[in-house]
Design a protein that fits this description.
Radius of gyration: 14 Å
Helix content: under 10%
Order of helices and strands: EEEEEEEEEEEE
Distance between the termini: 16 Å
Shape: globular
Strand content: over 45%
Length: 137
């Protein structure tokens, strides 16, 4: 169970860079912003050699169980930040599936999967999220 950041619960983020086998990213710092029309979940590892992290977002949509597909305008989106680099955007083939949402308890459970692509070269990462989180009170 993670308690750093503003969320309590379980977050697993697996990253497979450039076709390599996936590795579970360490995420000691977890953020959750859950409102009736917005959701943002992030997991980060902040170390002296740099930040590594991933985030998923759903903006300006009613947050309820279901599948949300990434959009070109980033209303549904995902990002991956490799250590010591700029963020890579998730492509429009990505999706976020919310299995359970409780706005009163600030609880959300679900999955997300997307391919994050570098703007600067041919680098990419397949990103898989599994989460069961409650906003810290």
């Amino acid at each position: 169970m993670t308690t750093k950041g503003n969320a309590i619960g379980l977050l697993s983020i697996k990253i497979a860079k450039n076709g390599e086998p996936s590795q579970t990213m360490s995420t000691p710092f977890i953020t959750l912003d859950l409102k009736s029309n917005n959701l943002s979940i992030g997991g980060y590892n902040i170390e002296p050699e740099g930040l590594e992290g991933a985030q998923i977002d759903i903006h300006e949509q009613h947050i309820q169980p279901g599948t949300y597909f990434f959009t070109e305008d980033f209303r549904v989106a995902g990002f991956y930040t490799p250590r010591m680099q700029n963020s890579w955007n998730g492509d429009v083939g990505g999706e976020i599936t919310l299995i359970e949402v409780d706005l009163t308890k600030k609880f959300v459970r679900g999955t997300a999967k997307f391919k994050a692509v570098s703007k600067y070269d041919d680098s990419y990462a397949e990103v898989d999220f599994n989460f069961s989180l409650t906003g810290a009170q």
